[in-house]
Each structure stands twice: as structure tokens, then as C-alpha cells.
Q: What sequence folds into this?
């Protein structure tokens, strides 16, 4: 369990998945699994306890299984679920090219959703001989049905909500409506409502949104309203004005991330949640970090962030944060 005290938690979450899934390739590699001990060691140097949210291809990759079993044996982190619907058994094609479209789990029939959640839960628990309590949806595709299914399986924590961010413009299944719209959702943790995941309720599943803060003011909102009719212009405005800041390194936001930690500390929030993809730790494993030099720069940014948190934040897995929150 985390140390006692009033320090906020720094929750380190890693979407642990195959190499460069952004490419939409039919074949999925898992070479990044061999590079993860470096990140784990960095976390441990700062007394941080990462939650590795694991997809199907990594759960059956021998290199990752060996690594994760060691982490669990030393109680140095947690294994959770990260479900990519298009390649998680049992198969249920929605198109002839699901590997490229990457449908959201919420676009499948309820029966298929249940089967995929059940398969992944059993796979992780059998492989690692530990109950799985935490979850993040693939491509952030989350809704109330999904939340109820997780709660029924005994999950305690979800971290799929991205406050202030809409994924509607990002398609999944052909003819679908895109991803969820999390604008207006809370930034803080809360137990979910059974029918409306934007509200607090009595579902025994704690939502721990990724730490994302709003940028800009009235001028930016007016500009966004003016171009809302045109998705291309709206996306260009988003890129140009950066309406939100994530606690997620992108190669250009070291100072923004440090400012988020300051805001968390100064405003008395009880956690900040960092996220990254495991493949981003491998040269060529993601669009942002294509070269060895860019990955080294990424590590420098992460270390800068962890230095900024040292002594002021305490490390915790998602399960441990849930225990603290429930007890409070």
C-alpha cells in the first residue's frame, strides 16, 4: 500500500500493447516487450508503482509474461486489462478490415462484449495468477454498458475517461458514429452511475480519469464554435491551439506536464494520472517516437517529470488508489 500522508498520488498507467498499432497492420509485433524493464526500473527509482494495462497480444508474448511475473512477484506494480476489441478472441468480424478500422468494443453486440471481456479477464488471471482489478478501454471506447459488465466481473477501477476530449471524429466500425465524447466529464475520480458514466452513482466501479486540463479561454472557445461545422477546420484548430494538456509526453510538452503537477499540488487534488503506450518506448513503435534519439528524449522528459514529482507525490497502483479512495 502507498505510504500514509496527505501527498497526492502520481498514478503511472501504461497501455501495454503491440508495436505501432497506429499503422493498422494486420500483423502485430511485440518487440517493445523486451524494452519495458528500463521504464519499470525508472519508476522504481522514484518509488512509483506503474499499472500495466495489458492487451491480448502482450498477454501471450513470452517476453512480457516473464517481465510482468517478476513485477508482480516483487510487488512493484500491477497488471490490469486493456482490451482491443478487433483482435481479442473470440473473433467476431465487423468488416473485412477490422485490423485497419479498429472498431470500439462498444460497437459490438452485448453478447460479444461479454465474451471478449470474459476471455481477457480469464487470460490475465490464469497467466499471472492474480485477480485483475483495473481496466482501460481500447481507443478510449467506453460507455455505461461496458462499465456494468466490468463491475459484474469484479473490476474495481476504470481509467478510460479523457475529460474535455471527444473521440467522435475517430471512426471505428464502418458506418459507426465514432468514439465517445467525454467533454463535460469530471476531472476527479468518482464511482460511476449505472446509466450515465458522466455522473457519480452507485456502481462499484471507480472511474479515475486521465489527467487532462483545459487550456485557453473565451477566444479559443469562440473560434471552436465558428468552425464546428467543418471537421477538417475543427481538427486543424485543435492541433494549432492545443485546447487541452495531457499528463502524457509527446516530445514537446515537458513544461506543460510539470505545470500540471504544480496545478494538482496547488489545488489540493488527490491524484495526477500519467499515461503512455508501451510501444512509444521503442524506436519506430509509434508515430511520435520513430528514432532512437527521440526515445532518449522521451526518457529525459519522463525523468524531468518524475524529478518534479519527487518528494511531493506518492506512488500507487490503480488498485491501491481505489483502496485508499474507498476507505476515505
A:
Amino acid at each position: 500500500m502507498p505510504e500514509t500522508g496527505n501527498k497526492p498520488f502520481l498514478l503511472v498507467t501504461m497501455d501495454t500493447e503491440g508495436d505501432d498499432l497506429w499503422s493498422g497492420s494486420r500483423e502485430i509485433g511485440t518487440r517493445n516487450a523486451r524494452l519495458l524493464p528500463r521504464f519499470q526500473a525508472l519508476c522504481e527509482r522514484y518509488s512509483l508503482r506503474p499499472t500495466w494495462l495489458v492487451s491480448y497480444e502482450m498477454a501471450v508474448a513470452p517476453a512480457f509474461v516473464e517481465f510482468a511475473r517478476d513485477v508482480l512477484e516483487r510487488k512493484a506494480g500491477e497488471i490490469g486489462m486493456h482490451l482491443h476489441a478487433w483482435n481479442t478472441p473470440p473473433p467476431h468480424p465487423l468488416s473485412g478490415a477490422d485490423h485497419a478500422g479498429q472498431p470500439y468494443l462498444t460497437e459490438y453486440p452485448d453478447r460479444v462484449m461479454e465474451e471478449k471481456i470474459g476471455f481477457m479477464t480469464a487470460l490475465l488471471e490464469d497467466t499471472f495468477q492474480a485477480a485483475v482489478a483495473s481496466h482501460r478501454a481500447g481507443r478510449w471506447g467506453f460507455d455505461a454498458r461496458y462499465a456494468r459488465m466490468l463491475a459484474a466481473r469484479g473490476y474495481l477501477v476504470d481509467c478510460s475517461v479523457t475529460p474535455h476530449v471527444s473521440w467522435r471524429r475517430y471512426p471505428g466500425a464502418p458506418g459507426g458514429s465514432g468514439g465517445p465524447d467525454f467533454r463535460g466529464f469530471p476531472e476527479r475520480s468518482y464511482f460511476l452511475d449505472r446509466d450515465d458514466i458522466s455522473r457519480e452513482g452507485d456502481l462499484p466501479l471507480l472511474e479515475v480519469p486521465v489527467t487532462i486540463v483545459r487550456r485557453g479561454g473565451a477566444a479559443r472557445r469562440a473560434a471552436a464554435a465558428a468552425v464546428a461545422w467543418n471537421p477538417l477546420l475543427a481538427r486543424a484548430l485543435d492541433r494549432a491551439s492545443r485546447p487541452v494538456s495531457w499528463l502524457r509526453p509527446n516530445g514537446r510538452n515537458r513544461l506543460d506536464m510539470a505545470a500540471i503537477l504544480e496545478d494538482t499540488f496547488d489545488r489540493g487534488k488527490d491524484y495526477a494520472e500519467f499515461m503512455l503506450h508501451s510501444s512509444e518506448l521503442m524506436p519506430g513503435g509509434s508515430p511520435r517516437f520513430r528514432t532512437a534519439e527521440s526515445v532518449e528524449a522521451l526518457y529525459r522528459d519522463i525523468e524531468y517529470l518524475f524529478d518534479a514529482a519527487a518528494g511531493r507525490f506518492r506512488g500507487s497502483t490503480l488498485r491501491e488508489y481505489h483502496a485508499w479512495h474507498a476507505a476515505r
The chain has a mean pLDDT of 93. The longest strand covers residues 9-16. Residues 9-211+247-327 form a domain with the TIM Barrel fold (CATH 3.20.20.370). Residues 110-128 form the longest helix (19 residues).
